[in-house]
Structure formats: C-alpha cells, structure tokens
Amino acid sequence: MPGKERSEVRGKAHGEVRGRTTELGHPWSDLLLLLVGTPLVGLLLGLSVPRLARWVSGSPVLPWRDGVEFLGRLDAPWQTGLFVAAGLVAGVLLVLTALSEDMRLKLTDERVRVEQDGRSRTFERADVSAVFLDGRQLVLLGTDSGQLVRGEPAPRAAALAEAFRAHGYPWQDADPHASLFRRWIPGTPDLPAEIHALLAARQAARERKAPRDARDLVDTVRGLGYVVRDEGAQQYWRPLAGA
Prior knowledge:
The protein is an alpha+beta fold. It has six helices and twelve strands.
C-alpha cells in the first residue's frame, strides 16, 4: 500500500493533502496573527484604558463624562492589572469566536465535508453542480441549483479554487444563476404567502444577529422551491432551476 503523500496546498493557505484528501483551514500567517495579535491588542488596550480615559475627558462634547473620568482615576497597579486581564480575556474570546465561526473543508474526489458553526455536513461530489465565491462567501449548489452551503471560509480564494479544481469539482468564477435573482419586496404577488412569511422571519433573524437561524430558514425556503441570497441588508430570491 503506498505511503501517504503530504504537502502544503499552494495559494498561501494552510492545507494538507493526504493521498487524495485535501484539508483546508486558516493560512498560517492569518492564524498566527489571530492567535497572537488579537490577545496582544486586547492586553494593550486594557493597559491603556486609564490613560485614554484621561485624554478623552478633555473633550467638551464627551458623553458619559462621569463614567469616563472615573475610569481615568483607576490607575493604581492592581486596577491596571484588572484592565490588562480583562483586555487579554476579551482578545482570547474574540479569537475563539472567530475560529468557531470559520468554515473548514475536507475534500476528496468523491465528497466534501464542511465544518461550520459546530456542525459537520458531507456532500457527495455527484450532488454538487457548482462551486464559487459570492463576495467573500463560498457557495456550493446542488443539482437542483439549490444552495447546499454558504459561508466565509478560512482559506483564501486562490487556494479554494485550486483545491476544488484538483478534485474535479465544478468551480465557477461567478454564480451561474446570478441573473435570475430578484429583490424581495414584502407582499409581491410573484411569491406565495408562505415564502413571504419565511423571508420576513429570516429578515428578523438577520436583524437580531442570529446567523444560524437565518441559514436554517434558507434551507426551509429551498425545500419549497426557492433560493435566497443577501446583498447588504436586502434579501434576493430566485426559483430553483426547473421550478
């Protein structure tokens, strides 16, 4: 049995190729910056809080002046230590949140596994009709043109394109169905009332910063024959191919 081949995926992404398996995650440079830089910035901000508070307290239009001036007086060594500890903890929490929200990919010639928001999903190569980037988000479409996956991946664009093409996936330079999307206008007769209700619920989920709920509603809408995407604060829709 041949030994496992291992090499780094080109395109400056952190990836591993084992035989015919490619794993893609954070580029090493980005990972180092995230793991070291973010907590360091939090630590420095914590160290600077009293000094910054004293500096801004001289502004004539400063809101919450009493609170800012109070922070400026907290410059005892133990108080500075608390600020530093709080800034460091905040930086670490930001790193953990960023890592948990990023998409990780494992590709073979037969299937792709996507890890996102603590969930792992696997799709057969034969069930993927298109792969492309929509802005900074990676999108996989199914054979019915419905959205299988959408999210911001850790790897960079060049590494994504190279990896998917190397394993024979239909990488596209843009959404092949982009011209079919129409802006959602509540109450338009072009959509059934059930879809309007789901899109209204999804808009509310987006406004309250609940991305997982919004993604779950995308899956529900797809089951009824439609695809949803966002442009800024607006939702756009199209029917599934052949619907």
